[in-house]
Amino acid sequence: MTARTLLFLTPTVVLAACLGLVLVIVGTKVARTRRERRTAALVAPYRIDLLAVSAGEDDDGSHRARLAQADGPGRDALDEAMTTLLGKVRGTPADHLAEVLHAHGAIDRAMDDLEHRSSVRRARAAQLLGLCHIHRALTGLAAALGDPTPEVRASAAHALGLIGNPAVARRVLDAVGTSHPIPAGAAADALEGMGTGISEALRDALHDASPTVRTVAAQVSGEGAFTRSTPRLRELLTHDPDLTVRETVAEALAHLGRAEDVEVLARHTAGEQPTPLRRACVTALGELGEPSAAPLLAALLDDADPRLAEQAATALLCLGTVGREALGDRQGPAADTARILAQLRTAQAGTS
Questions:
Q1: Which of 8, 17, 259, 319 has the greatest number of beta carbons closer than 10 A?
Q2: Is the pTM of this model over 0.70?
């Protein structure tokens, strides 16, 4: 085949590929629209019952009974609609929708679908089991944290957070540091849904070999006010080899720390420390709110790093009267920025 022939064929091939892609997109959209219309038509006879149950206006259970009696394609369409509603309602209406799904056998099918060959089915099963708070699904959902498909892993983590059983907290933390990890944010959200029972798992995870696991454990410790993590957090701030872990620890100590942590954080604002860590510790000192940090923060107003100097000025404002006095009549961009922020806050407080 000559070069001229290739040049002639190339635009034709590209055009054909583009046309094929357009046809696939259009076909997918048409199929989805048809499916949505069919589902809506199947659900239509039960719409009043769905609205009554989801609104908590089914005191005599008559609407639930009609929903429970659905079968065939109508039942499947209802199950899909009720699963969607479960993500929007809480309390008794959610419990009643879950009862109907139980009656339809949807929970048992979801348990089986956790091992289905279709990743879409596995993800949907995890979502349903979480929304219905099925505790007997804990083992299967914990196993799904290692699923090869990211969407399934994320759905399993979310489901475990909804169920809220702290018994699987360590499994969630471990899943962050594997070769097929769950997102750190998804893990943190799941752990926060498990309550105070995760305290021991968090302390253990702060010793984990994976820096990502340590980071998540530090983040959740701070956001959840798990004070038993504090001694280990102080150690990590000084000795952890991973900078992201140390920054996260500084943020956690801002929520958990006490007066003695001013000195701990202050050591890591020194010039020889990595810049991101210095900035994190300065911000943490402001959020900690201890007046004894004022002299250190005032000294940092002249730091060679202008961003850190601005953060020090902002941190001083967080300390209230003591911080404003330390700011005093100091000159320079950082101090000027702090005074502007103080004026803005005063103006906002006056209009609120």
A1: 319
A2: yes
What pLDDT does residue 326 have?
Answer: 85
pLDDT at 38: 75
Q: Which residue has the tokens 């239509």?
A: 44
* Size of the chain, expressed as the number of residues it contains: 352
Angle at 68 between CA 102 and CA 156, to 5 degrees: 30
The tens digit of pLDDT for each residue in 282-304 reads 999 999 999 999 999 999 988 99
136: Cα separation from own chain's centroid = 24
Q: Rounded to the nearest 5 degrees, what angle is found at the Cα of 125, between the Cα atoms of 76 and 30?
A: 55
Closest Cα partner for 260 from 224, 226, 294, 288?
288
Whole-angstrom Cα distance, residue 235 to residue 263?
13
Residues 232 and 119: their CA atoms lie apart, in Å, by 39
> For residue 6, what pLDDT is reported?
46
- Residue-range domains of the chain with CATH: 154-257 (1.25.10.10), 261-342 (1.25.10.10)
How wide is the angle at C-alpha 20 spanned by C-alphas 19 and 26, nearest 5°? 90
What average pLDDT score do residues 129-143 get?
97
